[in-house]
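User: Round two. Same drill as before: sequence, then structure, for each protein.

Assistant: Same drill it is. First protein:
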Amino acid sequence: EHVTSTVSAIVRVKDEGRLLARCLASLRAQTVPLEVIVVDSGSTDGSIQVASRLADRLIEMAPEDFTSAAF
């Protein structure tokens, strides 16, 4: 019996719009089923718009609430 596993990739960003599209495209090119989650902490450079288009899920957090251990 073949078991399909789901992998989630969490990408945390703040003002990384310039590189985010390339990063998400690279994740999509993987050979396993992949859920892409972007956690944004107050971007003002278009990162939210890129993530809205290309990620499966976008989580927005206030910069003061964002820590590495928050998720």
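Second protein:
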Amino acid sequence: MTKAIRGLILMFLLAAPSLAVTRAWDGGGTDGNWGTAANWSTDVAPVAGDDLVFPATAAQFATSCNIGFFTTFNTITVEGGTYTFGGNPIRLANGINAVGGTPTFNLAITLSGPQTFTAGTGATATLLILSIGNFPLTIDGTGITGIGLLSGSGTITKNGAGAAAIIAAAGYSGALILNNGIFVVDASIPNSTVSINGTAPMGTLALSGFGGTGTVGATTVTSGVISAGTLTSPTGILNISNGLTFTANGAYVCKIGGTAPGTNGHDQLNVTGAVNLGNALLAPIPWGGFQPAVNDTFVILRNDGTDAVNGTFLGMPEGATFSGPLNSAYQITYHGGDGNDIAIKRVARAAFDFDGDGKSDISVFR
């Protein structure tokens, strides 16, 4: 072999990317540091590019990354347990898989490429600080993923039957897409557009939808459900900037738990910009044992300024009376509140023909 060929081979080997090595935590060291070799099953501490695995059983669950600031690891898998991850900020190349347990990532995580975070059944993954840059992030699985403080401009797509929550944000402006499960936003992200594409709204009202008590940008409910409230306060006010548009396959589920909008009250969508109802479904549902009295009025959609609401909800023209849960009835107006809000009023009727067959469908409303 000539020197030239040997030189080329050496250059190739030096330039070739290193393969990720899997390092499994056992917590066998005297501290919880990632840099302590005895904390890993092979007694070798991880380095940049490695895959990190944290088993459901270990000698200790409190861990701290004392490896260099913003070291890039490939993936993190948590198989169970009550892990806490502190220490230096890291970069992540290919996602997090919380198979089980309740991992809490108190260290800051920055994405270095497109990736997926998955939480398995029964798992709750909490990320205190997450910067996604301009990379797309997919949140998947049947568990819960919570983000404490989000920044960046990449698109976040929610797949899987589980739940995801964005609690706070620092300048985040990326688009949000809901395809399945529950997606809650309590952060103020008025420049983030929202696309709701949930499946089968009539069959999954309690299982699939977008909500929260924060502020989001222009929102389109193509199919599936929009509501308000958060995981810890089921009723609330969701603020929407730059308009709200429904299609006929969309639904607004409004929980009625009190006479005032907000926590311990009823849901309200507070919209600036145009409102287009598109013959979507409106479903007011009782909440928390509250029973509205006759003439109780609920402003369920607050519309800004002087722009009128465009269209109506399914089968509900102006002034229509419709059947509600628990043998109740409501009357709707698109000129409530200050004149261009949507309000429903609990009404009492001795009899009403809801289906137009000439016969009373409900004899007494209470």
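Helices lie at 3-15.

User: Perfect.
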